[in-house]
């Protein structure tokens, strides 16, 4: 399969005191969805087992393809011989989430505030996956196992492609682009105002 990612793969270095270090890479879309779910409960002491499971999932995305189980993670994070160091797990979790944000920042969707006054009574939870499925011909299971940056790259292309197919969509994209500009387009301004003068 073609690698859609145009950015070089980056890795987050994680070093353990008195132990070895690992380089963590970008997760799959399904693991990222799990990370977002766990994030809500990160400081809840009753959620320890879930924190161990997600840490094992995160640690399994290493450059050496070493698989981590919850049992292996428990042994790695033992503190004072018996207590699990959830603060260290939380630190890795937060650093990994920040790393993902940095790697995927270039794949943000074009946005322009448009028609936000409309009431929405139901939400479609798989709208983005459907967009990528229609664009690529992949099924939902294949999409869930894509590396997150590849998924976001395809989502961005599918979104722009879909908007490009209508006059309203092209106008939306133009307005979204204008919002991203940090410097005025002097040539366009001169052409507009000199012509009207």
The gyration radius over C-alpha positions equals 22 Å
- Counted up, domains total 2
Distance between the termini: 56 Å
| Unreliable segments of 5+ consecutive residues | none
Residues in helix, %: 40-55%
Mean pLDDT, to the nearest integer, reads 86
Strand content: 5-15%
How many strands? 4
Helical stretch tally: 9
The biggest beta sheet is recorded as: 2 strands, antiparallel
Structural class: mainly alpha
Overall spatial form? elongated
Strand order across the largest sheet: 1-2
Q: Which series of helices and strands comes N to C?
A: EEHHHEEHHHHHH
What does this entry look like structurally?
The structure is a single chain. With 197 residues, the chain is mainly alpha-helical. The chain has 2 domains: 12-104, no CATH class; 127-196, no CATH class. 53% of the residues lie in helices and 6% in strands. It is built from 9 helices and 4 strands. The strands form 2 sheets. It has a two-stranded antiparallel sheet. Strands 3-4 form a two-stranded antiparallel sheet. Helix 1 (29-39) packs antiparallel against helix 2, helix 2 (48-59) crosses helix 4 and helix 5 (127-136) packs across helix 7 (148-163). The longest helix is centred in the middle third of the chain and has 19 residues, at 86-104. The termini are far apart.
Could you write a compact summary of the structure shown?
This protein is mostly helical. The protein is 53% helix and 6% strand. The chain is elongated and about 80 Å long.
């Amino acid at each position: 399969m073609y690698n859609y990612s145009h950015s070089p793969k980056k890795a987050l270095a994680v070093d353990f005191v008195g132990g070895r270090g690992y380089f963590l890479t970008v997760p799959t879309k399904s693991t990222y969805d799990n990370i977002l779910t766990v994030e809500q409960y990160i400081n809840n002491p009753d959620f320890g087992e879930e924190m161990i499971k997600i840490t094992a999932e995160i640690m399994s995305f290493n450059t050496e393809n070493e698989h981590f189980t919850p049992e292996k993670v428990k042994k790695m994070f033992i503190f004072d011989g018996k207590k699990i160091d959830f603060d260290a797990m939380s630190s890795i979790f937060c650093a990994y989430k920040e790393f993902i944000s940095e790697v995927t920042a270039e794949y943000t969707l074009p946005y322009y505030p448009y028609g936000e006054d409309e009431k929405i009574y139901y939400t479609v939870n798989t709208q983005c996956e459907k967009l990528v499925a229609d664009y690529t011909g992949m099924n939902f299971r294949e999409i869930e196992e894509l590396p997150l940056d590849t998924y976001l790259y395809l989502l961005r292309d599918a979104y722009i492609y879909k908007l490009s197919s209508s006059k309203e969509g092209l106008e939306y994209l133009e307005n979204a682009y204008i919002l991203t500009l940090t410097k005025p387009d002097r040539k366009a301004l001169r052409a507009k105002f000199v012509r009207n003068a």
